[in-house]
Amino acid sequence: MRQPTFEDTYPELWSVAYRVAYRITGSRESAEDIAQVTTERAFHRWRSVNRYANAWVARVATNQALDLVRRVRTADSVAADLEPRREHLDPLVEERLALTGALLTLPERQRSVVALRFLYGYSVTDTAAALGISDGSVKTHSHRGLAAMRIALGHLANSVLGEDTA
After folding, report:
1. 3-class secondary structure, 56
2. pTM for this structure?
3. CA–CA separation, 103 vs 148, rounded Å?
4. Residue of 75, 122, 79, 97 lying closest to 24 (CA atoms)
5. pLDDT in tens, 70-89
6. How many other CB atoms are found less than 10 A from the CB of residue 149?
7. What does the pLDDT read at residue 166?
8. In this structure, are residues 66 and 104 in contact, taking their beta carbons and an 8 Å threshold?
9. What's phi and psi for 31, nearest 5 deg?
10. Is the pLDDT score of 39 beyond 90?
11. How large is the angle between the packed helices 124-131 and 135-153, nearest 10 degrees?
12. Which pLDDT score is estimated for 157?
């Protein structure tokens, strides 16, 4: 059985990157940019990532989207512009901002595990394979990451994360 080529998997990879980036940023334009950069990186690393390309693309897109959100949030002028209008935000936008902010507080490993498990829907085994860690480590990082996010989200935790996410 032959390994699929990059060209065979490009549409699926782009879709994975776009969906993950859109869930985090809430912006179609940003998600498209992130998907393009992510699939370009996958193309250049195809020999080493082709066996787990979907997981690799999801992880890279997650990191890029979170980096983008972090840059926007730290820009004083953007933060100052957003704060006065915060009470007029759509509840879903407010939840997305809160979720992204909580993700940004996590250490990198926990952030990667939580993103793959709960944003992209990977199983424990698939997440472990994608990150090169054990199933037990995935469970530990999931538990700790979600607990930290619940604390960071405060009163929004149940509406954003659900009551039984772990």
Report:
1. helix
2. 0.60
3. 9
4. 97
5. 777 665 444 455 554 445 55
6. 24
7. 44
8. yes
9. -65, -40
10. yes
11. 100
12. 62
Percent of the chain with pLDDT over 90: 29
Count Cβ atoms within 10 A of the Cβ of residue 144 and give its class: 0-12 exposed, 13-18 middle, 19 or more buried.
middle
Predicted confidence at residue 75, as pLDDT, reads: 55
Both tokens of 82, joined, read 């957003």
pLDDT at 68 over 60: yes
**Which residue's structure tokens are 């879903």?**
92
pLDDT of residue 42 exceeding 90, the answer is yes
Other CB atoms within a 10 A radius of the CB of residue 113 amount to 29
Round to whole Å and give the CA distance between 144 and 150: 10
User: What's the mean pLDDT when you consider all of the chain?
Assistant: 81
> What are the structure tokens assigned to 44, written together?
């250049």
Rounded to an integer, what distance in angstroms lies between the CA atom of residue 154 and that of residue 151? Answer: 5
Backbone dihedral angles phi then psi of residue 133, each to the nearest 5 degrees: -130, 175
Type of residue numbered 34: I
Show the tokens assigned to 17.
Answer: 């990157």
Length of the chain (residues)? 166
Q: How far apart are CA 160 and CA 66, in angstroms?
A: 17
Q: Are 53 and 96 in contact (CB under 8 A)?
A: no
- Structure tokens, 57: 């693309």
Q: Are 69 and 104 in contact (CB under 8 A)?
A: yes
